[in-house]
Write a structure and sequence with these properties.
The complex is a heterotrimer of chains A (137), B (138) and C (286).
Chain A (H helix, E strand, L loop, with lengths): L5 E5 L6 H17 L4 E3 L2 H6 L2 H4 L6 E6 L5 H8 L3 E7 H6 L14 H27 L1
Parallel strand pairs in A: 1-2, 1-3, 3-4
Helix pairs in contact in A: 1-6
Chain B lengths: L7 E5 L6 H17 L4 E4 L1 H6 L2 H9 L2 E5 L5 H9 L5 E4 H5 L1 H4 L11 H25 L1
Parallel strand pairs in B: 1-2, 1-3, 3-4
Helix pairs in contact in B: 1-7
Chain C lengths: L7 E4 L6 H17 L2 E2 L2 H6 L2 H9 L2 E5 L5 H8 L4 E6 H7 L12 H22 L13 E6 L2 E6 L3 E3 L4 E6 L2 E6 L1 H7 L2 E5 L6 E2 L4 E7 L3 E5 L4 E6 L2 H4 L2 H5 L8 E5 L2 H5 L5 H14 L3
Parallel strand pairs in C: 1-2, 1-3, 3-4
Antiparallel strand pairs in C: 5-6, 7-8, 8-9, 9-15, 10-12, 11-14, 12-13, 14-15
Classes of the chains: A alpha/beta (137), B alpha/beta (138), C alpha+beta (286).
């Protein structure tokens, strides 16, 4: 991993709670847990933008966080030429909280925020470990 | 087909790197859930871009408003590229100010009353657009 | 056409009307063209030892001439499980064939017999259709119902539905079962699949496991009576396949049928299920 920040791209789907979870995870990772090593990127802007804009993602390392099996973030990043280093899924995070209600696409419950925090920390640990390995290696 | 012919689509920007995207998303959800339930259909922009047949087909057939966080107008561009021209566009930065809209993205964990006021202002403008579309149709 | 034995045939053999003669002729042609075995209903009534073994060996096809259903009654008396039933007068009505009064079949009646054979052979071909598992088709044609931006798919041919929104696709004496598009869209993303046990004997409308999303748990109601022979193990790791297509890669279980002719009477075909689903969709806030 170079010194440039890794792009953390959520699906941000507006229809389901999973989309909100991915968005909150990306914001927490990029703004709070790994602000030196990660950043979010407006995927819609990159996909619909001109070539100059596409360079923000093309050939760059990305982590995608998808809400469901449709995998919109992974698909769009791949389409835009990003290199997907890791993929995560909000539904997998939800499975660890079977029977709990995470909230809606507008607002999360405490259980929903717990899912966000757990997944955020998992991703942040991964980023820091890889950055640490790179610095030591 | 079910009674869908009077529904209006709203395709919201989801801009993850600015406040405008968060406000845009929250305004769309509030419109659909509280202000005009049953009258609007939210379309998912990432799914739209990734090839979502349901989203793209709806926007081809029904009037659709693009709700943009900023003046890059990604939702409008996506609709016109993959579906059909939008019926109208509303830009959040025109309502809450460009500097505010382009400030850092906001987690819903830290929403304040001020943010909720911004959402309400955007919703009010959306409702005007919807009412105009409805009256033009009659 | 070279075929293995695929039916044991019990015709009514009635001699009081043309329909009985059609039943007899159909049984004879099946026996010669498909290597099926015939049970003589008269002999069976008085000496069943000869035929009990044959009856158990292959799926049983009962051919009744008319609504008196003498062959079906005989099968019931002997405790046989019927895999398929044909009633000649009903088939004649369906195919718009007018049966005469003579006990010798005319040209039209012989053509009718050939058409019935063709239907049975087409179904046999479905059983033998190659697919990676058990001969079930991998793709279907759908009728689409639109509500807002959502599209609900309902297969038109070959499916039987329950009012609980489960379906069965039957080939011979086997069925594959699953849930409809209405169910998977109502549940949203399915996270867990708790399947039925292989070997379990289920009655029609018994529970066959469940599927679970973040919103709800859905008990799967079996549309048919039978024994579970397979479950879709892919769903244990990837339950989202049910959301992607609940009729194709998202099927739930397979059963060997034990009472389908009776089960069928309480199931809905496409024409009857589709309006029910439409009403549910219109009332539901997807």
């Amino acid at each position: 991993m170079s010194d440039e920040k890794i792009k953390v791209i959520p699906c941000s789907g507006i229809g389901k709670v999973f989309g909100l979870i991915t968005r909150e995870v990306a914001l927490r990772v990029a703004n709070e847990l790994c602000p030196e090593d990660a950043e979010t990127l407006c995927l819609s802007y990159v996909v619909t933008g001109d070539d100059e804009v596409k360079q923000k993602i093309e050939g760059h390392n990305c982590i995608t966080i998808d809400g469901c099996a449709t995998k919109c973030a992974a698909k769009n990043v791949a389409y835009a030429g990003g290199i997907i280093k890791d993929q995560y899924s909000a539904t997998e995070a939800y499975k660890n909280h079977r029977g709990e209600y995470g909230g809606t696409a507008t607002i999360l419950t405490d259980a929903g925020w717990q899912m966000v925090d757990e997944l955020s920390e998992k991703i942040a640990d991964k980023i820091k470990n890889e950055r640490g390995d790179k610095n030591n290696g | 087909m079910a009674e869908t012919k009077n529904k209006i689509g709203v395709l919201s920007c989801t801009g993850e790197d600015c406040l405008g995207g968060t406000i845009s998303r929250l305004a769309t959800r509030k419109l659909m859930e509280k202000v005009r339930p049953g009258e609007t259909v939210t379309l998912c922009l990432p799914l739209f871009l990734a090839g979502g047949e349901e989203e793209r087909t709806f926007a081809q057939v029904h009037p659709t408003i693009a709700l943009e966080g900023c003046d890059k107008c990604c939702a409008k561009k996506a609709t016109e590229k993959y579906s059909a021209p939008v019926c109208d566009v509303l830009i959040v930065s025109d309502i809450i100010g460009k500097d505010v809209a382009e400030s850092k993205a906001l987690s819903t964990r830290y929403l304040t009353e001020e943010h909720n006021d911004m959402v309400d202002k955007v919703v009010d403008e959306l409702v005007k657009k919807i009412d105009k579309i409805d009256s033009d149709r009659k | 056409m070279e075929m293995s034995k695929f039916y044991t045939v019990l015709p009514c053999n009635g001699l009081d009307k043309c329909a009985g003669c059609v039943a007899r002729e159909l049984a004879i042609k099946l026996a010669t063209e498909t290597n099926s075995e015939i049970i003589c209903p008269v002999l069976y009534r008085v000496a069943d030892s000869r035929y009990n073994e044959i009856a158990a060996k292959n799926p049983l096809l009962v051919i009744d001439g008319c609504a008196t259903r003498c062959a079906s009654k005989l099968a019931a008396e002997k405790g046989l499980k019927i895999a398929k039933k044909i009633t000649v007068t009903e088939e004649a009505k369906r195919k718009n064939v007018k049966l005469g009064t003579s006990l010798r079949l005319n040209e039209d009646e012989n053509l009718f017999v050939n058409a019935l054979i063709k239907d049975l052979l087409t179904e046999e071909k479905k059983i033998r259709t190659e697919d990676t598992t058990t001969g079930f088709p991998e793709t279907f044609e759908y009728e689409l119902y639109h509500k807002d931006k959502f599209i609900f798919r309902v297969p038109k041919e070959g499916f039987y539905y329950t009012e609980n929104d489960t379906w069965a696709y039957v080939i011979g004496n086997k069925a594959r079962i699953g849930v409809t598009d209405f169910v998977q869209k109502s549940l949203s993303d399915i996270l867990f699949f708790s399947p039925a046990t292989i070997g379990a004997e289920v009655e029609q409308f018994d529970d066959l496991g469940n599927i679970e999303s973040g919103k709800a748990v859905f008990e799967i109601i079996s549309p048919v009576t039978g024994k579970v022979t397979a479950i879709n193990e892919t769903l244990l790791e990837s339950p989202e396949l049910i959301n992607i297509n609940p009729y194709e890669k998202g099927w739930l279980a397979e059963l060997v049928l034990t009472n389908f002719e009776e089960d069928k009477e309480l199931l809905l075909d496409f024409d009857h299920y589709y309006p029910i689903m439409q009403r549910k969709v219109d009332e539901f806030d997807v």
